[in-house]
Amino acid sequence: MAEATHVGTHVSRWEQFTDWLQRPVTVARLAVAAPLALLVLGLVMVLSASSVTSFSESGSSYAEGVKQATFAGLGLAGAAVIAFLPVAWIRRLAVPALLVTIALQALVFTPLGVAAKGNRNWILVGGQTVQPSEFLKLGLVLGGAYLLAHKVPRLREFLHLMVPFVVPVVAICVGLVLAGRDLGSALVLLAVAVGMLWVAGISLVWMGLGLGAAAAAAGVLAVTSSNRMGRIAVWLNDCSDPHQENCYQKVHGEYALADGGWWGVGLGASREKWFYLPEPHNDFIFAVIGEELGMLGACGVIGLFATIGFVCYRVIAGTRDTFTRIATGGIMAWLLGQAMINIGSVIGLLPIIGVPLPLVSSGGSALVAALGAMGVLVAFARAQVPGTGRARKRSSGTRSPRTRTAGARSASTRSAGTRSSSPRAAGARSAGTGGKQPATGGRAVTRRRPRS
């Protein structure tokens, strides 16, 4: 009997935890907490990983960290503004955001464009380089969600599936990025498009054909570049010669992870950042995290990204708004897909592609764009919390006298005990009926005073 009681209590506590985890207010809080935790961790690790190279280049160990913190402040300000926007406003701004980001990406082929490391994917504005492809991801999420939301009933037809989302929107976005020879960002854009189409509910047949065509195109692009073929060959051969040029970064990233062990060598005590590991504060910052914070820190980063994925899933499952669902699917594919590519490259599961770890790696454009996406996600999550957005307007006292009388009568009936239910059940029933008086409650009669 005692054992049965213990099991029953354990199950009850688990049910309470899962119920708490699925509440809209919990999802909204996690939508804020998880990105903030990644941001703080990223700022600390960028400061640590870049200290040596910053000192050698500028004479200050804090130069790169301060620069990243400045971009974090700008991104947080923008995310805060977006988070408090109504979903209807975000929907209205979706197509303009897409058009503006496409125009910015086209500027890389003008005299404003800057080439670096074989890629032409930056523009120089006021002495500061900006990477438009990072903002193009957010523009594709919002604009693509707007276009697909109007096509959902007819997406099983080939013409409506292709036009206008796949052609011309996705084709233009990916084509502009590939023209600048940035295969990593192009793959992320394709992942965003696939995620949005999946949430929109396209046929699995079309999805399979699209993925096959994308894989074939990626193979052609890899074969036509000697640098990409070298990275793939190194990945397939597992760096039998660690002194090869293409093996150097991969091998030292693995050295960093191995040195970290379970608990790490200590914050700031990385040895690989002393000019052994290229890009320790950017593409390979996950290796420095594993070295300084150990397996525990690396798993913590993965857990925070999993939390963002859970938030996206709950937002998708908790709304009937098609635009919100598709845009959230795009954000989920963007951040989680890019994180998997980055971490997979560091640990050797994928060839080195060269994409940053969202919210963690150094890079102002990537950080500001990712924080903007988090602002959109928070806005979507807040819209599902009772007492915010339209729900707040309905409960702000602007209701008609008939509605107020019905609400008072319903409240008095519940307090009189005619409905025996727990507060949680009553709240669930109110949420399910939209706050309206049940049909069995009868009509409330409002009496008027006689005129004097």
Automatic annotation (TrEMBL):
It is a multi-pass membrane protein. It holds the Pfam family FTSW_RODA_SPOVE. PROSITE patterns: FTSW_RODA_SPOVE. Keywords: Cell cycle, Cell division, Cell membrane, Cell shape, Cell wall biogenesis/degradation, Glycosyltransferase, Membrane, Peptidoglycan synthesis, Transferase, Transmembrane, Transmembrane helix. The keyword Cell membrane applies. One of its GO terms (molecular function) is lipid-linked peptidoglycan transporter activity. Residues 388-452 are annotated as: Disordered. It is found in: Cell membrane. The chain crosses the membrane at residues 27-48, 69-89, 95-114, 158-179, 186-209, 293-316, 328-353, 365-385. GO terms for cellular component: cell division site; plasma membrane. Its EC number is 2.4.99.28. It is an enzyme of class 2 (transferase). It catalyses: [GlcNAc-(1->4)-Mur2Ac(oyl-L-Ala-gamma-D-Glu-L-Lys-D-Ala-D-Ala)](n)-di-trans,octa-cis-undecaprenyl diphosphate + beta-D-GlcNAc-(1->4)-Mur2Ac(oyl-L-Ala-gamma-D-Glu-L-Lys-D-Ala-D-Ala)-di-trans,octa-cis-undecaprenyl diphosphate = [GlcNAc-(1->4)-Mur2Ac(oyl-L-Ala-gamma-D-Glu-L-Lys-D-Ala-D-Ala)](n+1)-di-trans,octa-cis-undecaprenyl diphosphate + di-trans,octa-cis-undecaprenyl diphosphate + H(+). One of its GO terms (biological process) is cell division. The keyword Cell division applies. Residues 397-431 have a biased composition (Low complexity). Peptidoglycan polymerase that is essential for cell division. This is Probable peptidoglycan glycosyltransferase FtsW. It comes from Kytococcus sedentarius (strain ATCC 14392 / DSM 20547 / JCM 11482 / CCUG 33030 / NBRC 15357 / NCTC 11040 / CCM 314 / 541).
